[in-house]
Amino acid sequence: MNRLGSLQRLLLTTAGNWTSRQALLILIYHRVLAAPDELLPDEPTVTEFAAQMDLLGSLCHVLPLAEAVERLRAGTLPPRAACITFDDGYANNLELAGPILGERGLPALVFVATGFMAGGCMWNDIVIEAVRAATAPLDLREWGLGMPPPGDAAARIRLLDQLLPALKYLPPAERAAKALALAEQAGAVLPAQPMMNAEQLRALGRHGMAIGAHTVNHPILEAVDAREAEREIADSKAVLEALSGQPVQFFAYPNGRPGSDYSRIHVDMVRRCGFTAAVSTAWGAAVAGSDLYQLPRMLPWDRSALRFGLRLMRSYRDRHSQRI
């Protein structure tokens, strides 16, 4: 038996009866990288992603999200049901992840923030590139972070862990302006087109990848007024349907933490806008009775195949309870 087969057998034995009940595990990815990036240690490279997909395909029944939601509602999920999702709409979802998924026959869904499709970077990527490029202390006094020296990769990651939350909850226009000011201060050169464009969006289907909505400008819905929040939700759906020529059934809440990033009023907005279901970033597996407009998901940040597989198996037993 090869190494993957031995690992599969070990994990299934370890799992015991955890996966015998009806449960749906939804994985969240953002980027897949061509090579390791010291400032993005939790993002898989193509090699790591391929290994994860090999293990996922051997351990789980991977379903399109549309089928999984319908079978969750009907109580007909297969054992170890799983879905693959990507948030934001990075071009590497198509260019790097797409061929890996297509070769293995694994379906996935990409939640796209439509405001970044015409070019440019998301605010968080601008901040990351500013911290990467800095050769002198950045002036971060307005966020109470002083003027920290750049330091090594570990120091830059620690700085990002402070800086990104400090900007995250600002209104989208102000957040983008402050991120660009940081990039200018650091002399950062931003990537030309990290997000997928309309042509790439339409090409997702060739790799068995569906499309979901993730707002226009990726605001924290709880941090903007109700009219703006509903406009962000509705407009993202309309734009994606116009570009793809297909109905967009699913929505992902930006940042996605129930009760802090979105609330019941936003769940109601998503329902009114005609979505079939929505996903959060609350931890756990969805089971019978789970709110279809607040489905939990799992972040697969483990670097080794063994830890990744063990996390998959453990997550099936973690039933998520809604709090809003």
Characterise this structure:
The chain has 324 residues and is an alpha/beta fold. It folds into two domains: 3-118 and 194-315, Alpha-Beta Barrel (TIM Barrel), CATH 3.20.20; 123-186. The chain is 43% helix and 11% strand. The chain has eleven helices and eight strands. It has helices at 3-15, 46-59, 65-74, 91-104, 123-133, 153-168, 172-186, 198-203, 226-244, 264-272, 305-315, and strands at residues 23-29, 61-62, 81-88, 108-112, 209-213, 250-252, 277-279, 286-287. Strands 1, 2, 3, 4, 5 and 8 form a six-stranded mixed beta sheet that branches. A two-stranded parallel ribbon has the order 6-7. Helix 3 links the parallel strand 2 and strand 3. Helix 1 (3-15) crosses helix 2 (46-59) and helix 5 (123-133) packs antiparallel against helix 6 (153-168). 43% of the residues are buried.
Major beta-sheet overview: 6 strands, mixed
Count of individual beta strands? 8
CATH superfamily of the largest domain: Glycoside hydrolase/deacetylase
Structural class: alpha/beta
What is the global morphology? globular
Round the Cα radius of gyration to an integer and report it: 20 Å
Q: How much beta, percentage-wise?
A: 5-15%
Helix content: 40-55%
Please tell me the CATH architecture of the largest domain by its name.
Answer: Alpha-Beta Barrel
> What is the first-to-last residue Cα distance?
47 Å
**H/E element order:** HEHEHEHEHHHHEHEHEEH
Fold-level CATH name of the largest domain: TIM Barrel
The number of distinct helices, counting runs of at least 4 residues, comes to 11
Please, how many domains? Answer: 2
Average pLDDT for all residues: 89
Low-pLDDT parts are 13-18
- Please report the first level of CATH classification, the CATH class of the largest domain: Alpha Beta
